[in-house]
Amino acid sequence: MNYMKIICPGEQGWRGGVREGTEPDFGGLEEWVRMFCEDGAAVKEFILTRHIPNFSTTHVQGLILALIAQTGYPGHTSIRFPVTHSKVVIRAPDRVNAFFSSVTKVFMGSKRYEVLGSVWPFADVERGAEGRKCVVMGEEEWFDEWKNVIGRAVVNGKKGWVTIEDRLEWLMEGQGNIEQWRWSGQGY
Predict the structure, then answer these.
(1) Domains in the chain: boundaries
(2) pTM of the predicted model as reported, rounded to 2 decimal places
(3) What domain of life does the native source organism fall in (predicted)?
């Protein structure tokens, strides 16, 4: 699997202009970086975006909804899987000051180079495909590690995100398993 994706010839994208386009076209990363560095624009950005292919959020969402139903929680839930820290934005050194750059960006736009993606595959192929190999763990293994943390958050009426801090707290406090908990109708 290729862990770096560079914009393809003819593909619509941010290629160093203030609007998306299909030109110019360069072969590889070094040429794009050279073009960015040699660009004399005062306000310019080079953006690297991280992608995580082959993670079945639909399957995990189903597992989580079944878990929530098991607790007896009667309310509505929203389940999302945001990818944090998914962009690295490199900007040109601020030659004058931040205010001038902000004003310039509003009226003239920023020259944007968004030609590169970093690929962090969850698995080599999509869920359900024959011979699938996950890089670290499968969706069920991920769910097994998180189900007690998520269940505890539901039973306690937590609002907001369930994060790694919640998992660490559950591990350190030894709160038991989801099978022991039921929704009490209260929360915080």
Answers:
(1) 4-180
(2) 0.68
(3) Eukaryota
